[in-house]
């Protein structure tokens, strides 16, 4: 009887196990980890960050949108209701969507949510920790709101390499335009012109001294800083206070002190700041980098016992000088003994000893095509297909894209329009060089993956440049800058199957073609490597009216 009971409970356990595994596979989310549910209503609403009325994009009435606070491996179930008069889609900057590019929320993977409709994202912050953000990926919506921060805390049993701070502040900063609506920005680009320079900078959706961080004397605070803007590299500094860098997009860094730190579009990092100065108010300053016309804005660091308001000149910072920015970038390295989302130290994967199987050199360019401003990568200026690439794959719809429609190396000639998709081998280990021959600043982001930034320098990359690579403790992140007339090299382990967007974080360039997709694929495509299409997937373009589950 007892044996029978045991047998029964074992059977029951296996059954529950199977059900859990099935639920996991069917929903593309992990049943073992906590679930967090969000309901977000996307609307237009009046905002006045620079004193003039603008049509902002709000989430549940908020600008910036609500924060997501979660723990490594949590499941995030986010129901998005689109009340705009046009399609909407959210993407998750730095949240990797492991095996699950379906949820990535860019046009190559996911159908836009039509006006008046809803879609429920099922994400998991799988094996991640750190500071990220979400943003609307269509058109120029990102320039008018719809973004918010994502904090992924470590699980209790996994130590982070610094004491728990007394407070944890979010700093979403970026360039800003005073126009009435994001549609005006889009109209300029659609008519073949370039965007004007931005009008100013914001911190957490506010202008000059519009936002206050209140600190208690003697306490230490974490500031999670993200550049959510569309074009401008920024420099961040706090009057009279040193910033100790502790995290960059999920990597725990060597804890250097900085008096100011550059943050390029799409990048995030965390610093610790101790309120150890005389009790008064201090400027928290953000100013533009590499722009002819320097923009700046301030927030207030307010000591709780202060009666003295900020006054006097705003402390200056680096502006056009590139060398100091490059020097700082090279000083940002991983702490090899610190743990990351998992207990093993960050240095336990010796990326420098792995030989890349393939080298890809990606060169950006600005060109006119049919009289309109366009941007290209290795001569291909990306155009959005009518059907997401992921759906074209799933339903075997031909003619949406061609694999190999972008070359591994730059070639000479004029740019042309195409839906560029590059093939990549699942579990491949690649070297990618971003070569920038233009005299402009570039930032590149890869969805679904982080990568080791092994080197950056001025001029033309050559195989000899490898001698200067950092093969020991390079930072591991998802967005990297490329200086004017310079190159940046990364190593990337392609252990996440799916269709991944590689794009410029300069939103005009992204919108006008400086992006493509990398299809990380293996012929033995199994559910262990990639989740099946979600039950609730929206269908659009040539996939409209199809059925996701033929059973
Ligand atoms: C690296 O991390 C370890 C382990 O948490 C910590 O003790 C050490 O101080 C860190 N080193 C630096 C240079 O940040
Ligand atoms: C900040 O911007 C204002 C207005 O554009 C300008 O007068 C001031 O000099 C700038 N300050 C710094 C430190 O760049
Ligand atoms: C939360 C959610 O996804 N709600 C609804 C979204 O819209 C579909 C119909 O298109 C409903 O079936 C869902 O329940």
TrEMBL record:
Assigned keywords, A-Z: Glycoprotein, Signal
Highest taxon in the source lineage: Eukaryota
Gene Ontology MF terms in the entry: copper ion binding; oxidoreductase activity
Signal sequence range: 1-31
Membrane-spanning parts: none
Annotated ranges, domain Plastocyanin-like: 42-155, 168-306, 386-523
UniProt record similarity statement: Belongs to the multicopper oxidase family.
Record-given protein name: OLC1v1027880C1
Organism: Oldenlandia corymbosa var. corymbosa
Record lineage: Eukaryota, Viridiplantae, Streptophyta, Embryophyta, Tracheophyta
């Amino acid at each position: 009887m007892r044996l029978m009971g045991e047998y029964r409970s074992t059977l029951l356990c296996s059954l529950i196990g199977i059900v859990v595994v099935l639920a996991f596979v069917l929903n593309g989310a992990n049943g073992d980890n906590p679930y967090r549910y969000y309901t977000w209503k996307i609307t237009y609403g009046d905002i006045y960050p620079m004193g003039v009325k603008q049509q902002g994009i709000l989430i549940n009435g908020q600008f910036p949108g609500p924060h997501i606070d979660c723990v490594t491996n949590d499941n995030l179930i986010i129901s998005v209701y689109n009340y705009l008069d046009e399609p909407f889609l959210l993407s998750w900057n730095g949240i990797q969507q492991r095996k699950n590019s379906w949820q990535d929320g860019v046009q190559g993977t996911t159908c836009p949510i039509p006006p008046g409709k809803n879609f429920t994202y099922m994400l998991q912050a799988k094996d991640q920790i750190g500071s990220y953000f979400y943003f609307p990926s269509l058109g120029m919506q990102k320039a008018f709101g719809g973004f918010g921060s994502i904090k992924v805390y470590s699980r209790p049993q996994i130590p982070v390499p610094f004491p728990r701070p007394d407070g944890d502040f979010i700093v979403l900063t970026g360039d800003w335009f005073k126009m009435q609506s994001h549609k005006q920005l889009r109209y300029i680009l659609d008519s073949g012109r370039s965007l004007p320079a931005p009008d100013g900078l914001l911190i957490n959706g506010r202008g000059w001294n519009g936002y206050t961080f209140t600190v208690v004397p003697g306490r230490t605070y974490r500031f999670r800083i993200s550049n959510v803007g569309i074009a401008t590299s920024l420099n961040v500094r706090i009057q009279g206070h040193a910033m100790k860098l502790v995290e960059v997009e999920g990597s725990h860094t060597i804890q250097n002190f900085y008096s100011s730190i550059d943050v390029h579009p799409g990048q995030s990092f965390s610093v610790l700041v101790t309120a150890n100065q005389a009790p008064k108010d201090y400027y928290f300053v953000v100013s533009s980098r590499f722009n002819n016309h320097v923009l700046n804005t301030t927030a207030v660091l307010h000591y709780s016992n202060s009666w003295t308001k900020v006054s006097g000149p705003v402390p200056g910072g680096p502006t056009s000088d590139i060398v100091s920015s490059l020097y700082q970038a090279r000083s940002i390295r991983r702490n090899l003994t610190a743990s990351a989302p998992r207990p093993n130290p960050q240095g336990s994967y010796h990326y420098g000893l792995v030989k890349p199987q393939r080298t890809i050199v990606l060169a950006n360019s600005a060109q006119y095509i049919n009289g309109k401003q366009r941007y290209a990568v290795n001569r291909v200026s990306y155009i959005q297909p009518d059907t997401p690439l992921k759906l074209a794959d799933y339903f075997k719809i031909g003619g949406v894209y061609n694999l190999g429609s972008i070359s591994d190396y730059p070639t000479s000639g004029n740019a042309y329009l195409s839906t560029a998709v590059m093939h990549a081998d699942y579990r491949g280990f690649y070297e990618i060089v971003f070569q920038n021959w233009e005299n402009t600043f570039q930032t590149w982001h890869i969805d679904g993956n982080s990568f080791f930034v092994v080197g950056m320098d001025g001029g033309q990359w050559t195989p000899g440049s490898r001698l200067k690579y950092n093969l020991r403790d390079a930072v591991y992140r998802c967005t990297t800058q490329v200086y004017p007339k310079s190159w940046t090299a990364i190593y990337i382990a392609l252990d996440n199957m799916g269709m991944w967007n590689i794009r410029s974080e300069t939103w005009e360039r992204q919108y006008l073609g400086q992006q493509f997709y990398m299809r990380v694929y293996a012929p033995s495509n199994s559910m262990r490597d990639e989740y099946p299409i979600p039950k609730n997937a929206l269908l659009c373009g040539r996939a409209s009216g199809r059925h996701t589950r033929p059973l």
